[in-house]
Design a protein that fits this description.
The chain is built from 6 helices and 6 strands; from the N terminus they run H-H-E-E-E-H-H-E-E-E-H-H. It has 195 residues and is α+β, with helices and mostly antiparallel strands. Helix 3 runs antiparallel to helix 4 and helix 3 crosses helix 5.
């Protein structure tokens, strides 16, 4: 006569399987990491080092994977405006460029940055630059210290916003201590020290 394992043993077995599958998903997600930066990032930072990576989810849905690339000076949270860096987002789903611009403005506003007039101007400029994206599309923003930001679509330059206040506010979405995605911030800044 075949015996079935007790309920506690079945629960333990299922828990182990779920944890193993979760670990496999995390390892698979790390395939986004690369030893060397894409050419456009390498050109901007020369040499570029991967500081960290993570994923952004909204109500459980993955929106994008993010990588923060830094130069030899690294990234200093105390003086974020002092060094050039690049933030690369690989989208996991289709989104309209207009919606990306709106969401960016909303996040900047939640951080308490920019006046109403600045927020409106910044949203308008982002709408002019940010394209519609689909799964696998890369959007890269490069912080230009005390100058502004340059943007790339799949490695090709698509525009600049030469406004230092905008650039600081835009990248604060991910890197400011008050970000609405603190776990992603921690992951991105994991290796941000100078080389």
């Amino acid at each position: 006569m075949k015996q079935t394992p007790p309920a506690g043993a079945r629960y333990h077995y299922l828990r182990v399987v779920v944890l193993w599958l979760f670990a496999a998903c995390v390892i698979t997600n790390n395939n986004y990491a690369a030893d060397t930066a894409p050419a456009h990032i390498q050109k901007e930072l020369a040499p570029a080092y991967l500081s960290g990576l993570g994923s952004f989810r909204w109500f459980g849905l993955k929106i994008y994977d993010a990588q923060l690339w830094v130069g030899e000076q690294g990234y200093n949270s105390a003086t974020p405006e002092s060094s050039k860096f690049a933030l690369d987002l690989r989208y996991a789903r289709a989104l309209q460029g207009r919606k990306i611009a709106e969401a960016s403005r909303d996040e900047i506003q939640k951080l308490g940055l920019g006046t109403a007039q600045q927020l409106a101007e910044w949203q308008s400029k982002m709408e002019q630059i940010f394209p519609d994206v689909s799964e696998g599309t890369h959007l890269t923003g490069v912080y230009l210290p005390n100058s502004g930001a340059r943007f790339y679509l799949d490695g090709k330059a698509i525009g600049e916003i030469m406004d230092a206040a905008f650039a600081q506010a835009f990248f604060a979405i991910w890197l400011a201590p008050k970000t609405t995605a603190p776990q992603l911030r921690t992951a991105l800044l994991a290796g941000a020290a100078a080389r």
